[in-house]
Write a structure and sequence with these properties.
- The complex is a heterodimer.
- In chain A, 41% of the residues lie in helices and 13% in strands.
- Chain A is α/β, with parallel strands linked by helices.
- Chain A folds into two domains: 134 residues, Aspartate Aminotransferase, domain 1, CATH 3.90.1150; 237 residues, Aspartate Aminotransferase, domain 2 (3-Layer(aba) Sandwich), CATH 3.40.640.10.
- Chain A has a seven-stranded mixed sheet, with helices on both faces. In chain A, strands 9-10-12 form a three-stranded antiparallel sheet. Chain A has a two-stranded parallel ribbon with strand order 1-11.
- In chain A, strand 5, helix 6 and strand 6 form a beta-alpha-beta unit.
- In chain A, helix 2 packs parallel to helix 9 and helix 10 packs across helix 13.
- The longest helix of chain A is centred in the middle third of the chain and has 39 residues.
- The radius of gyration of chain A is 22 Å and the shape is globular.
- In chain B, 46% of the residues lie in helices and 22% in strands.
- In chain B, strands 1-2-3 form a three-stranded antiparallel sheet.
- Chain B is of the alpha+beta class.
- In chain B, helix 2 packs across helix 5 and helix 4 packs across helix 5.
- The termini of chain B are far apart.
- Chain B has one domain: Sufe protein. Chain: A (Alpha-Beta Complex), CATH 3.90.1010.10.
- Chains A and B meet through helix 10 of A and helix 1, strand 2, strand 3 and helix 2 of B.
- Bound molecules: pyridoxal-5'-phosphate.
- Pyridoxal-5'-phosphate binds next to helix 3 of chain A.
Amino acid sequence: MDRLIYLDYAATTPMRPEVLEAMMPYFIEDFGNPSSLYTLGRQARGAVEDARDRIAAFIGANPREIVFTSGGTESDNMAIKGIAFANEKKGNHIITTPIEHHAVLEPCHFLAKRGYEITYLPVDEHGMVDPADVEKAITNKTVLVSIMHANNEVGTIEPLEEIGKITREKGVYLHTDAVQTFGHIPINVNELGVDLLSVSAHKLYGPKGVGVLYIRKGTRMVPTAHGGSQENNRRAGTHNVAGIVGLAKAVEIAEREMVSEAKRLSELRDRLLHGLIEKIPNARLTGHPTKRLPNNASVCLVGAEGEAMLLSLDMEGISLSSGSACTSGTLEPSHVLLAMGIPAEIAHSSLRLTLGDKTTREDVDYVLEILPPIVERLRAMSPLDEAWKGEQ
Amino acid sequence: MYSEKVMEHFRNPRNVGEVKKPDGIGEVGNPVCGDMMRITIKVKDDKIKDIKFKTLGCGAAIATSSMITELAIGKPLKEAEKISRQDIADALDGLPAQKMHCSVLAADGLREAIADYRSKIKK
Ligand SMILES: Cc1ncc(COP(=O)(O)O)c(C=O)c1O
């Protein structure tokens, strides 16, 4: 295989060499525990606090509102269970959407089994939540609204600012899973009106296994990991110093490059999407046509199955992902596509191409050359080869 | 995840298409589940003389379809209809557990084509 084209940046990203460089001293030389009082500990503590300052400034927060975690999954769990358990006296109602990542959906399922009421708001065919539905769903028992900033499969960016106005007015906490947007599009927690916001380092060229939960000052919540008094008693456990330093370095790079990179990627994304739609009969875009992540091109290519396309592309050196049942280990296609009203038989043909810092125009053109004949071959093999040619 | 043999059959599936004037047709699966298969056979002297498949599905669905055509061709109907999902999986050097249902599809497809042939000659 002479070419390797990675188009799954929404799954994870390679670390930037500068990030690794920044992390290196904290494994062997400056290995101290940030909770220790001697010099070595204080040095590590200093590195953690510098990182906290930088990340807070990046999203318009106060450094005391930043809690370091082990990644997006822990941040989501902590936000949902931490708010639910601390506000039991007020109520047991949580509002979310059916298109959240499993790191939000599963904590909600867990709470539902223990007597909590969970409302899943509808989304439209683009995966968009209607703020009016949020307003209607809030009751005097509602303790939390959790709506992702942008969807990881189809890239749709949710109208959080409007939702934030509603939750503020109603006095209900708002959490957002910003794992796919942090470091990719500008975020200001005050403009969004969120009380909690989840971040993961490995989606912005940082290390895996480290993240942040932003918690607005005054938010009533309980920890989910009990132990030492780190992070102001909000999250126990010795800090992942190197990881935290790596995340801050990734943020520093994003501060510099985010705006121009978003522009570059959205142009490549559009070239890719237009090319696919032009070259493949009956290709259809999934997600919102304009309010979408700069790097997300996702499509359904009905008549060809997702995993079969993925394997065929892998043989040509192209890595990407699919929402078909056969790639998930279950027999169900993507819950996101189904919630958007896409029929299962079409959802099985979904592909997600997510671009990143190493993606070039040549890569995009290579995909546009390789993918159409793959789809054609698989469609020719299908017993339903008329279905996709027909009226649809 | 897949064996070399599965990948080889996925890359170069045998007997794709439809036999002309088939003696039996087997259609199994359903597009909602993501897997759909159509097997057509030509029968002579109670043996499978020709067999072809068309499949919409994942890599395993395509490889198991291809493999069953290889296993079945030339076999007496009585033997062909006994090909089990395990036989197909074994011939492919194994399938991941969550993909065994694909081999069920192929085995069922062939049995249905044979049943279709038998119901036609009775008439
Ligand atoms: C939207 C979203 N939320 C949460 C996560 C989980 O983050 P992590 O892998 O850091 O646990 C991911 C990534 O897989 C994601 O895309």
